[in-house]
Amino acid sequence: MPSVPAFAPDAVGRLAALADVTASDAALRRFLHGLPGVDAVGLEARAATLGTRSIKTTAKAYAIDLAISMIDLTTLEGSDTPGKVRALCAKGVRPDPTDRTTPQVAAICVYPDMVAVAKEALGASGIHVASVATAFPAGRVALPVKLADTRDAVAAGADEIDMVIDRGAFLSGRYLEVFEEIKAVKEACVRTGGTSQAEGSGGGTAAHLKVIFENGELSTYDNIRRCSWLAMLAGADFIKTSTGKVAVNATPPNTLLMLEAVRDFRETVGVQVGVKPAGGIRTSKDAIKYLVMVNETVGDDWLTPDWFRFGASSLLNDLLMQRQKLSTGRYSGPDYVTVD
Questions:
Q1: Can 325 be counted among the known catalytic residues?
Q2: Rounded distance between C-alpha atoms, residue 98 and residue 75, angstroms
Q3: Of 57, 41, 61, 37, whose CA–CA distance to 49 is shortest?
Q4: Per residue in 190-221, pLDDT tens?
Q5: pLDDT tens for each residue of 105-147
Q6: DSSP secondary-structure letter at 173?
Q7: Which one of 96, 162, 237, 286 is the catalytic residue?
Protein backbone atom coordinates (compact mmCIF):
# COMPACT_ATOMS: atom_id res chain seq x y z
CA MET A 1 0.00 0.00 0.00
CA PRO A 2 1.41 3.45 -0.87
CA SER A 3 2.39 5.89 1.83
CA VAL A 4 -0.52 8.32 1.69
CA PRO A 5 -0.44 11.25 2.00
CA ALA A 6 2.94 12.18 0.56
CA PHE A 7 4.75 14.87 2.52
CA ALA A 8 7.24 17.46 1.36
CA PRO A 9 10.26 17.73 3.70
CA ASP A 10 8.92 20.93 5.27
CA ALA A 11 5.25 19.89 5.34
CA VAL A 12 5.04 19.64 9.14
CA GLY A 13 6.16 23.24 9.50
CA ARG A 14 3.73 24.43 6.86
CA LEU A 15 0.86 22.58 8.53
CA ALA A 16 1.81 24.04 11.90
CA ALA A 17 1.65 27.52 10.39
CA LEU A 18 -2.00 26.84 9.52
CA ALA A 19 -2.93 25.57 12.99
CA ASP A 20 -4.65 28.84 13.86
CA VAL A 21 -6.99 28.36 10.89
CA THR A 22 -8.74 25.47 12.65
CA ALA A 23 -8.51 26.85 16.19
CA SER A 24 -12.12 28.02 16.21
CA ASP A 25 -15.23 27.97 14.08
CA ALA A 26 -14.84 31.69 13.39
CA ALA A 27 -11.22 31.29 12.27
CA LEU A 28 -12.06 28.38 9.99
CA ARG A 29 -15.00 30.30 8.50
CA ARG A 30 -12.76 33.32 7.80
CA PHE A 31 -10.21 31.10 6.08
CA LEU A 32 -12.69 29.15 3.96
CA HIS A 33 -14.63 32.24 2.92
CA GLY A 34 -11.34 33.97 2.20
CA LEU A 35 -10.48 31.45 -0.53
CA PRO A 36 -10.77 32.94 -4.03
CA GLY A 37 -14.24 32.69 -5.50
CA VAL A 38 -14.71 30.24 -8.35
CA ASP A 39 -15.16 31.67 -11.84
CA ALA A 40 -17.96 29.32 -12.90
CA VAL A 41 -17.87 30.33 -16.56
CA GLY A 42 -14.11 29.89 -16.75
CA LEU A 43 -14.20 26.56 -14.90
CA GLU A 44 -16.86 25.08 -17.14
CA ALA A 45 -15.18 26.37 -20.29
CA ARG A 46 -11.85 24.87 -19.22
CA ALA A 47 -13.47 21.51 -18.46
CA ALA A 48 -15.25 21.53 -21.83
CA THR A 49 -12.03 22.36 -23.67
CA LEU A 50 -10.11 19.53 -22.00
CA GLY A 51 -12.92 17.19 -23.00
CA THR A 52 -12.27 17.82 -26.69
CA ARG A 53 -8.70 16.45 -26.68
CA SER A 54 -8.35 13.55 -29.11
CA ILE A 55 -6.52 10.47 -27.77
CA LYS A 56 -5.86 7.71 -30.31
CA THR A 57 -3.96 4.47 -31.00
CA THR A 58 -1.10 3.77 -28.57
CA ALA A 59 -2.02 6.62 -26.24
CA LYS A 60 -5.62 5.41 -26.13
CA ALA A 61 -4.55 1.85 -25.31
CA TYR A 62 -2.36 3.17 -22.50
CA ALA A 63 -5.18 5.35 -21.17
CA ILE A 64 -7.65 2.45 -21.15
CA ASP A 65 -5.26 0.23 -19.17
CA LEU A 66 -4.53 3.09 -16.77
CA ALA A 67 -8.25 3.72 -16.26
CA ILE A 68 -8.86 0.03 -15.50
CA SER A 69 -6.09 0.08 -12.90
CA MET A 70 -7.72 3.13 -11.23
CA ILE A 71 -11.20 1.68 -10.76
CA ASP A 72 -12.77 1.13 -7.36
CA LEU A 73 -15.10 -1.62 -8.56
CA THR A 74 -18.20 -1.06 -6.49
CA THR A 75 -21.35 -2.77 -5.30
CA LEU A 76 -23.39 -0.84 -2.74
CA GLU A 77 -26.87 -2.32 -2.87
CA GLY A 78 -29.20 -3.63 -0.22
CA SER A 79 -29.37 -6.87 -2.22
CA ASP A 80 -25.61 -7.55 -2.02
CA THR A 81 -24.77 -11.12 -1.03
CA PRO A 82 -21.46 -12.86 -0.28
CA GLY A 83 -21.72 -14.62 -3.63
CA LYS A 84 -22.16 -11.34 -5.51
CA VAL A 85 -19.17 -9.81 -3.70
CA ARG A 86 -16.98 -12.86 -4.46
CA ALA A 87 -17.95 -12.65 -8.13
CA LEU A 88 -17.07 -8.95 -8.19
CA CYS A 89 -13.70 -9.69 -6.57
CA ALA A 90 -12.98 -12.36 -9.18
CA LYS A 91 -13.74 -9.85 -11.90
CA GLY A 92 -11.49 -7.27 -10.26
CA VAL A 93 -8.59 -9.72 -10.13
CA ARG A 94 -9.04 -10.89 -13.71
CA PRO A 95 -11.26 -8.39 -15.57
CA ASP A 96 -10.84 -10.19 -18.90
CA PRO A 97 -10.34 -13.95 -18.41
CA THR A 98 -9.31 -14.29 -22.06
CA ASP A 99 -6.44 -11.79 -21.76
CA ARG A 100 -4.07 -12.03 -18.80
CA THR A 101 -2.39 -8.75 -19.77
CA THR A 102 -5.49 -6.84 -18.63
CA PRO A 103 -4.65 -4.86 -15.48
CA GLN A 104 -6.34 -5.53 -12.16
CA VAL A 105 -8.59 -2.88 -10.66
CA ALA A 106 -7.38 -0.74 -7.76
CA ALA A 107 -9.98 -1.74 -5.16
CA ILE A 108 -13.25 -3.48 -4.46
CA CYS A 109 -15.67 -1.17 -2.64
CA VAL A 110 -18.38 -2.71 -0.45
CA TYR A 111 -20.47 -2.11 2.66
CA PRO A 112 -18.72 -2.82 5.99
CA ASP A 113 -20.49 -6.16 6.54
CA MET A 114 -18.99 -7.45 3.28
CA VAL A 115 -15.39 -6.40 3.96
CA ALA A 116 -14.33 -9.76 5.40
CA VAL A 117 -15.86 -11.59 2.42
CA ALA A 118 -14.00 -9.35 -0.04
CA LYS A 119 -10.75 -9.59 1.92
CA GLU A 120 -10.83 -13.37 1.81
CA ALA A 121 -11.82 -13.50 -1.86
CA LEU A 122 -9.04 -11.13 -2.93
CA GLY A 123 -6.36 -12.96 -0.96
CA ALA A 124 -2.84 -11.93 -1.96
CA SER A 125 -3.95 -10.24 -5.20
CA GLY A 126 -2.81 -6.82 -4.01
CA ILE A 127 -6.21 -5.29 -4.70
CA HIS A 128 -7.38 -3.08 -1.84
CA VAL A 129 -10.67 -3.49 -0.02
CA ALA A 130 -12.51 -0.18 0.32
CA SER A 131 -15.55 0.23 2.51
CA VAL A 132 -18.09 2.99 2.76
CA ALA A 133 -18.77 4.02 6.35
CA THR A 134 -20.26 6.73 8.58
CA ALA A 135 -23.84 5.75 7.70
CA PHE A 136 -23.36 5.97 3.93
CA PRO A 137 -24.91 7.54 1.91
CA ALA A 138 -26.79 10.09 4.05
CA GLY A 139 -24.54 10.17 7.12
CA ARG A 140 -27.49 11.08 9.33
CA VAL A 141 -26.48 9.37 12.55
CA ALA A 142 -24.61 10.42 15.69
CA LEU A 143 -20.82 10.59 15.64
CA PRO A 144 -20.31 7.57 17.95
CA VAL A 145 -22.28 5.44 15.48
CA LYS A 146 -20.17 6.74 12.59
CA LEU A 147 -16.98 5.93 14.45
CA ALA A 148 -18.21 2.45 15.34
CA ASP A 149 -19.13 1.90 11.67
CA THR A 150 -15.60 2.90 10.66
CA ARG A 151 -13.86 0.80 13.32
CA ASP A 152 -15.89 -2.27 12.37
CA ALA A 153 -14.86 -1.93 8.72
CA VAL A 154 -11.19 -1.41 9.62
CA ALA A 155 -11.22 -4.33 12.05
CA ALA A 156 -12.67 -6.54 9.31
CA GLY A 157 -9.69 -5.67 7.11
CA ALA A 158 -10.66 -2.60 5.09
CA ASP A 159 -7.63 -0.90 3.54
CA GLU A 160 -9.61 2.23 2.67
CA ILE A 161 -12.60 3.99 4.21
CA ASP A 162 -14.95 6.16 2.13
CA MET A 163 -16.77 8.44 4.60
CA VAL A 164 -19.59 10.88 3.92
CA ILE A 165 -19.52 14.33 5.48
CA ASP A 166 -22.46 15.83 7.33
CA ARG A 167 -23.75 18.03 4.49
CA GLY A 168 -26.37 19.57 6.76
CA ALA A 169 -23.67 20.80 9.13
CA PHE A 170 -21.54 22.13 6.27
CA LEU A 171 -24.42 23.92 4.57
CA SER A 172 -25.41 25.42 7.93
CA GLY A 173 -21.93 26.90 8.24
CA ARG A 174 -20.84 24.60 11.08
CA TYR A 175 -17.46 24.07 9.48
CA LEU A 176 -15.52 23.20 12.61
CA GLU A 177 -18.03 20.47 13.43
CA VAL A 178 -17.39 18.88 10.02
CA PHE A 179 -13.63 19.32 10.46
CA GLU A 180 -13.65 17.61 13.86
CA GLU A 181 -15.80 14.78 12.53
CA ILE A 182 -13.35 14.08 9.70
CA LYS A 183 -10.47 14.15 12.18
CA ALA A 184 -12.27 11.70 14.46
CA VAL A 185 -12.99 9.30 11.58
CA LYS A 186 -9.36 9.57 10.50
CA GLU A 187 -8.32 8.48 14.00
CA ALA A 188 -10.82 5.62 13.86
CA CYS A 189 -9.09 4.38 10.70
CA VAL A 190 -6.10 3.30 12.78
CA ARG A 191 -6.14 -0.36 13.73
CA THR A 192 -5.79 -1.21 17.40
CA GLY A 193 -2.18 -1.14 18.50
CA GLY A 194 -0.97 0.78 15.45
CA THR A 195 -0.11 4.35 14.57
CA SER A 196 -1.31 6.36 11.64
CA GLN A 197 0.73 6.66 8.46
CA ALA A 198 -0.21 10.34 8.50
CA GLU A 199 1.90 10.59 11.67
CA GLY A 200 4.87 9.26 9.76
CA SER A 201 5.10 5.73 11.16
CA GLY A 202 5.01 4.04 7.77
CA GLY A 203 3.79 0.93 9.59
CA GLY A 204 0.85 0.35 7.29
CA THR A 205 -1.57 0.13 10.22
CA ALA A 206 -4.03 2.80 9.09
CA ALA A 207 -6.75 2.55 6.48
CA HIS A 208 -6.64 5.44 4.03
CA LEU A 209 -9.50 7.91 4.31
CA LYS A 210 -11.53 9.14 1.35
CA VAL A 211 -13.89 11.98 2.22
CA ILE A 212 -17.09 12.16 0.15
CA PHE A 213 -18.62 15.61 -0.35
CA GLU A 214 -21.79 14.84 -2.34
CA ASN A 215 -21.17 17.77 -4.68
CA GLY A 216 -24.73 17.64 -6.02
CA GLU A 217 -25.95 18.71 -2.58
CA LEU A 218 -23.27 21.34 -1.98
CA SER A 219 -24.91 23.34 -4.79
CA THR A 220 -22.15 25.86 -5.56
CA TYR A 221 -18.58 25.68 -6.83
CA ASP A 222 -17.48 27.92 -3.96
CA ASN A 223 -18.83 25.34 -1.51
CA ILE A 224 -16.94 22.55 -3.28
CA ARG A 225 -13.68 24.52 -3.05
CA ARG A 226 -14.27 25.26 0.64
CA CYS A 227 -15.16 21.65 1.36
CA SER A 228 -12.02 20.45 -0.43
CA TRP A 229 -9.78 22.59 1.75
CA LEU A 230 -11.68 21.73 4.92
CA ALA A 231 -11.31 17.98 4.29
CA MET A 232 -7.63 18.24 3.38
CA LEU A 233 -6.86 20.30 6.48
CA ALA A 234 -8.61 17.61 8.54
CA GLY A 235 -6.36 14.87 7.13
CA ALA A 236 -8.20 13.38 4.14
CA ASP A 237 -6.02 11.09 2.02
CA PHE A 238 -8.49 11.42 -0.88
CA ILE A 239 -11.34 13.77 -1.62
CA LYS A 240 -14.30 12.23 -3.46
CA THR A 241 -17.04 13.90 -5.45
CA SER A 242 -20.11 11.91 -4.54
CA THR A 243 -21.83 8.76 -3.35
CA GLY A 244 -23.34 7.86 -6.70
CA LYS A 245 -26.74 7.84 -4.97
CA VAL A 246 -28.04 11.31 -5.97
CA ALA A 247 -29.03 12.96 -9.24
CA VAL A 248 -25.79 14.96 -9.71
CA ASN A 249 -22.57 13.05 -9.08
CA ALA A 250 -19.13 13.47 -10.68
CA THR A 251 -18.99 16.06 -13.46
CA PRO A 252 -15.95 17.37 -15.35
CA PRO A 253 -16.26 20.88 -13.83
CA ASN A 254 -16.60 19.77 -10.22
CA THR A 255 -13.77 17.23 -10.60
CA LEU A 256 -11.57 19.87 -12.25
CA LEU A 257 -12.23 22.17 -9.31
CA MET A 258 -11.17 19.47 -6.85
CA LEU A 259 -8.02 18.76 -8.86
CA GLU A 260 -7.14 22.44 -8.70
CA ALA A 261 -7.71 22.32 -4.94
CA VAL A 262 -5.34 19.39 -4.35
CA ARG A 263 -2.74 21.08 -6.57
CA ASP A 264 -3.00 24.33 -4.61
CA PHE A 265 -3.01 22.45 -1.30
CA ARG A 266 0.25 20.68 -2.13
CA GLU A 267 1.84 23.95 -3.24
CA THR A 268 0.74 25.62 0.01
CA VAL A 269 1.07 22.87 2.59
CA GLY A 270 3.40 20.31 1.02
CA VAL A 271 0.97 17.39 1.29
CA GLN A 272 -0.37 15.48 -1.71
CA VAL A 273 -4.01 14.34 -1.61
CA GLY A 274 -5.80 12.08 -4.08
CA VAL A 275 -9.06 12.67 -5.98
CA LYS A 276 -11.87 10.22 -6.72
CA PRO A 277 -14.76 11.12 -9.03
CA ALA A 278 -17.67 8.72 -8.52
CA GLY A 279 -21.05 8.22 -10.12
CA GLY A 280 -22.06 8.74 -13.73
CA ILE A 281 -18.74 7.81 -15.39
CA ARG A 282 -19.80 4.91 -17.60
CA THR A 283 -17.82 4.97 -20.85
CA SER A 284 -14.19 4.76 -21.92
CA LYS A 285 -14.57 8.11 -23.63
CA ASP A 286 -15.66 9.69 -20.35
CA ALA A 287 -12.82 8.07 -18.38
CA ILE A 288 -10.19 9.24 -20.86
CA LYS A 289 -11.52 12.80 -20.63
CA TYR A 290 -10.95 12.66 -16.88
CA LEU A 291 -7.41 11.35 -17.36
CA VAL A 292 -6.66 14.22 -19.75
CA MET A 293 -7.98 16.59 -17.08
CA VAL A 294 -5.68 15.05 -14.47
CA ASN A 295 -2.65 15.26 -16.74
CA GLU A 296 -3.32 18.87 -17.74
CA THR A 297 -4.20 20.11 -14.25
CA VAL A 298 -1.99 18.30 -11.75
CA GLY A 299 0.38 16.28 -13.94
CA ASP A 300 2.04 12.87 -13.79
CA ASP A 301 2.25 12.80 -10.00
CA TRP A 302 -1.49 12.08 -9.85
CA LEU A 303 -1.67 9.72 -12.84
CA THR A 304 -1.49 6.54 -10.75
CA PRO A 305 -4.04 4.51 -8.77
CA ASP A 306 -2.35 5.78 -5.61
CA TRP A 307 -3.65 9.29 -6.30
CA PHE A 308 -6.60 9.06 -8.69
CA ARG A 309 -9.52 6.63 -8.71
CA PHE A 310 -12.79 6.12 -10.50
CA GLY A 311 -15.73 5.06 -8.35
CA ALA A 312 -17.62 2.89 -10.80
CA SER A 313 -19.60 -0.26 -11.38
CA SER A 314 -20.44 -0.24 -15.11
CA LEU A 315 -17.35 1.62 -16.42
CA LEU A 316 -15.14 -1.47 -16.40
CA ASN A 317 -17.24 -3.33 -18.97
CA ASP A 318 -17.00 -0.51 -21.51
CA LEU A 319 -13.25 -0.22 -20.97
CA LEU A 320 -12.90 -3.96 -21.59
CA MET A 321 -14.93 -3.77 -24.79
CA GLN A 322 -12.85 -0.89 -26.10
CA ARG A 323 -9.67 -2.72 -25.12
CA GLN A 324 -10.78 -5.80 -27.05
CA LYS A 325 -11.59 -3.67 -30.07
CA LEU A 326 -8.11 -2.11 -30.06
CA SER A 327 -6.41 -5.50 -29.81
CA THR A 328 -8.58 -7.45 -32.27
CA GLY A 329 -10.01 -4.77 -34.53
CA ARG A 330 -13.50 -6.02 -33.75
CA TYR A 331 -16.14 -4.71 -31.37
CA SER A 332 -17.36 -7.74 -29.46
CA GLY A 333 -20.19 -6.11 -27.50
CA PRO A 334 -21.41 -6.53 -23.90
CA ASP A 335 -22.14 -10.26 -24.25
CA TYR A 336 -18.38 -10.89 -24.41
CA VAL A 337 -17.41 -9.43 -21.06
CA THR A 338 -17.95 -11.11 -17.72
CA VAL A 339 -21.06 -10.30 -15.70
CA ASP A 340 -20.43 -8.54 -12.40
A1: no
A2: 24
A3: 41
A4: 977 544 334 434 444 689 999 999 999 999 99
A5: 999 999 999 999 999 999 999 999 999 999 999 999 999 999 9
A6: T
A7: 162
